[in-house]
Amino acid sequence: MKAKVKAVTPSAPHRQSITRHLRYSLGTPETKAPLPSLYEATALAVRDHLIDKMMETEARYEKKKAKRVYYLSLEFLMGRSLGNNLYNLGLFEAFSESLADMGADIDEIRAQEHDAALGNGGLGRLAACFLDSMATLGLAGYGYGINYEFGLFKQEIDNGYQKEKPDNWLGNGTPWQLKHPEKQCIVPVYGRIVHAEDREGNYNPMWMDWKTLIGIPHDMPIAGYGGKTVNTLRLYAAKSSDDFDMDIFNTGDYLKAVEQKMTSETVSKVLYPSDAMESGRELRLVQEYFFVACAIRDIVDRHLSSYKTFNTFPDRVAIQLNDTHPALAVAELMRLLVDEHALTWKRAWAITCATFAYTNHTLLPEALEKWPVALMEHVLPRHMQIIFEINHRFLDEVKAKWPGDNARLAAMSIIEESHPRQVRMAHLAIVGSHSVNGVAALHSELVKTELLPDFYALYPKRFNNKTNGVTPRRWLFKANPGLTALITRHIGDGWVTDMDRLTGLEPLSREPAFQDAFGTIKRANKEVLAKTIWDTCRLKVSPDSLFAIHAKRIHEYKRQLLCLLHIIHQYLEIVEDGKIPNFPRTYIFAGKAAPGYEAAKRIIKLINSVAATVNNDPRVNDAIKVAFIPDYRVSLAERIIPAADLSVQISTAGKEASGTGNMKFAMNGALTIGTLDGANIEIMEEVGEENIFIFGLTAGEVQAIRAGHAYRPWAIAESEPVIKRILDALGTGRFSPDAPGRFIPVCESLLSQYDPYLHLADLSAYIKAQEQVEACYDTPRLWMEKTILNVARMGKFSSDRTILEYAKDIWNATPKG
Ligand SMILES: *Cc1c(COP(=O)(O)O)cnc(C)c1O
Predict the structure, then answer these.
(1) Based on the domain organization, do 20 and 75 belong to the same domain?
(2) In what helix (H) or strand (E) does residue 197 lie, and over which residues does it extend?
(3) What is the pTM of this model?
(4) Is 232 a catalytic residue?
(5) In this entry, which stretches build a coiled coil (predicted)?
(6) Cis check: omega of the bond before 420, within 30 degrees of 0
């Protein structure tokens, strides 16, 4: 029987498609459809468009013999897809009207979608922005990663403490993925090496008795803006083979066999929730290998099906390693070429190095990946052999360059001769790549001079910088429709794909009418956020107060504590000195702490404790409010960022590789208070020193203090009464009346000469910079002018610019090629 569907009306062109999906994909009659079903049917209707375009795109790449670019990343922090796909396909209005025709509100439907949180923070979100830019630029760019069953944990706040809850985002599946069981990939793991010889008597090791992992690709279509190109993000889910260890079945231990099956499916179960910190766990190593092995096989198969030879491999294929997490790809490609395709080592190595490029994301020592040799031998015996051989040949090169320099040899070796011996993944990635890049100008310099000076001396041409960017489609066009409409009304919509055109706003920066229109939009965005704060924290904040926002992962180097010390200072000024601020302020925090990171979790408790004290003290009389919004994630960031007046970016200089949150805030018209760290420096260069509040030590000064053992925080506290007062309040239980000693460990770490983040060294400068902010905000016309100039001058930080640089300098790939 045929469904009765309404005839297509011009005002509701997609109603029929949504209704058909309700009926035939979900088995739900339109009249009874609850919101979640309406969301799903809408997504499926949008997906139909994506699939058509995806197939057209692949055919076009095939015909043009486009160079393929593969972005390997253990994390893709995608967020929601419905709105983004509708905007990029140019279908937002049409779907909005079609849903309205059915009596549904598109915003309510969009709110049904669960974020795809397959990443921790900046590194994973960068991967997501890059996919958007590659599709928008018409580059044949593919993402490869893991389809985690559980993404980053959901954060709840209980009595001021973070509680982690599982993020079962795939509970009912997702309409944004196409599962391809027929393209499954079989991967060997564990087992042992048999040292054999081939017929000519050459050493020919054989990998025996391995177990198999099966990777099932789940493809997510990635629509470029304008809808012409739809690329693919391929995420693998681990599945055990049906005949997984049939021997056990046959000997009768049925339950043990089923248990083993559970174990192999564990591989894609959950994302490791640490940001800038390595776990060192076996399951994590298996995860890294699993997705890399699936990806490399897929890449090689696609190449051979078109070209039949490896001669052209590096001309047709570029592989970017997002940090060292996928660095095993170097060994895996070598294994495929040498063991399975019988290439000589020399030829295989030339192909490998010409194909790979590596992006470094951090200078923090605790984040540099190392794996015990014994563990790697156990999990990946053949890869460990290959890594030893790579290292052997590499060390010969080092010896030739620096004869007799054994210290340098030990420092550069891929194997760290420690107890236990460890594989240094960054060294493997560098040796096996033709390009090594940092993610902001300062960071890339520090990679050369501090982190890897020996490698820079050996391979100076390999090192380069690619300053990060973010996609203006999600972070301005979609997140801030009010500002988008205002900008487009004045300068047209070309900026969406050419962000430099925002400079067209500069002449409007002093025009009162434009400033007022801008201010009205900002005020409306603040109202939306105020409502979120009420809904999630039961706290009333005024949209007329200055919104100062510190939203990012909670980490000591990002210095949420420095921000808090200033808030405490302002609170004490009010209640002790009777100093009433000229205008009210709302301090807003959001961010997750890694579940095992005690110091970070204590910072969350402290933020909530300061909030409880300040918000409930009648003497403060609403002059300052402090809010911690739980569960920071992409969809929440899209609400928070457009509402910010002041963006707080105050990491210790030299610690934040780039930052991308800083870019999102500034392009939405927040002024930055920040240190000379990461991309803040380049933001300052673009927007002008007079349009940003910069303070604090430089990376060089931080280094000099560290090198000279010259940090004396207690002396700072003794000589500056303002600082002493803040620390006394913290240490004597003013914010923890129920447990006066709770925050003594915080005071002790702040007063320790070993505090790696030098909080107290920057505190006075930070307080002064906040006073400058205050004076400026008190002059609204001046503030608005700076705000508009920030938006106008942020073009450099579009990820389109970043991707064009990768394509030209590293991948040798042409957009629309
Ligand atoms: C952009 C973004 C980040 C990165 O923020 P930084 O300030 O650069 O650390 C982290 N999480 C989410 C959800 C983001 O959108």
Answers:
(1) no
(2) none
(3) 0.97
(4) no
(5) none
(6) yes
Same-domain status, 307 and 164 = yes
Residue nearest to atom 5 of ligand 1 (CA): 661
> Alpha carbon of 184 to those of 72, 206, 232, 759: distances in Å?
18, 24, 16, 51
Token pair of 574 as six digits: 């009010």
Q: What is the pLDDT of residues 771-809, one digit of tens each?
A: 999 999 999 999 999 999 999 999 999 999 999 999 999
Q: Which residue has the tokens 């983004």?
A: 84
Q: In sequence order, what are the residues at sequence separation of 6 or more whose Cβ sits closer than 8 angstroms to the Cβ of residue 745?
A: 602
| CA triple 362-365-370, angle to 5 deg | 95
Say yes or no: 56 and 75 in one domain. Answer: no
d(Cα 766, Cα 653) in Å, to the nearest integer? 13
What is the C-alpha to C-alpha distance for residues 68 and 747, in angstroms, rounded to an integer?
53
Q: Which residues does a 6 A CB cutoff place in the pocket of ligand 1?
A: 121-122, 125, 552-553, 632-634, 637, 659-661, 664
Cα atoms in the Cβ-side hemisphere of radius 13 Å centred on 668: 36
Nearest CA to 137 out of 54, 56, 224, 195 is that of 224
| Catalytically annotated residue among 28, 229, 352, 660 | 660
Residue where a domain stops, chosen among 354, 372, 389: 389
Q: By C-alpha distance, which of 571, 665, 556, 566 is closest to 604?
A: 556
Tell me, yes or no, if 655 is annotated catalytic: no
- Is-catalytic flag, 558? yes
Instruction: Tell me how crowded residue 419 is: count the other CB atoms within 10 A of its CB.
Output: 7
* 266 and 152 housed in the same domain: yes
**How many beta carbons lie within 10 A of that of residue 374, not counting itself?**
12
* CATH number reported for the structural domain that contains residue 514 in this entry: 3.40.50.2000
Q: What is the pLDDT of residues 649-706, one digit of tens each?
A: 999 999 999 999 999 999 999 999 999 999 999 999 999 999 999 999 999 999 999 9
Expressed as residue numbers, the domain containing 34 is 8-64+90-113
pLDDT exceeds cutoff 60 at 1: no
The number of folded domains in the chain is: 3
